[in-house]
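User: Could you check the structure of this?
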Amino acid sequence: MGTLTGSLTAGTAVASSLVAILAGPLSKRLGEKTLLTISLLGVCVMLIPQALVHSANQLFLLRILQGAFAGALLPTANAILGNSTPPETRGKVYGFSASTQAAARIPASPLSAWMVAAISMPSVFILAAIVYGFMGFLVATKANMSKDPIEVQEIESIPISEPDCAKPIL
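Assistant: Sure, the predicted structure tokens are below.
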């Protein structure tokens, strides 16, 4: 079982890592909102059949496809945060974002374990699909951000002064 679990995790991680490299060029071409929406809804769609698989090979293939969609999530979300935050507060925003992501993972494992024990393994995939689908819907319909990546680039042209801590003391 351990080798199977490791393979499933590795397949997802490798696909996610490869797609993450392409997230920048894809977001410039499609727009950040569009890429984030596609990624969230793609993960949602890939989670649903995982609840119905009959073999480890089927699950492995679906986990790779899920990883491919998930690969653009963090790079795109971080680009959106960076482009919509003044340079002097980006560190705080990135820190808050990372802390929030870590905090969300704390209840996820016990909740998943409880769901498997109390309901079934497929219930975990269905709940995750519902969450990703809902987030995709919110981004598609409620997120207020530039649809044109060129408008976002204008924000990056704000001159950044050298921080006081980088100046010599003498």
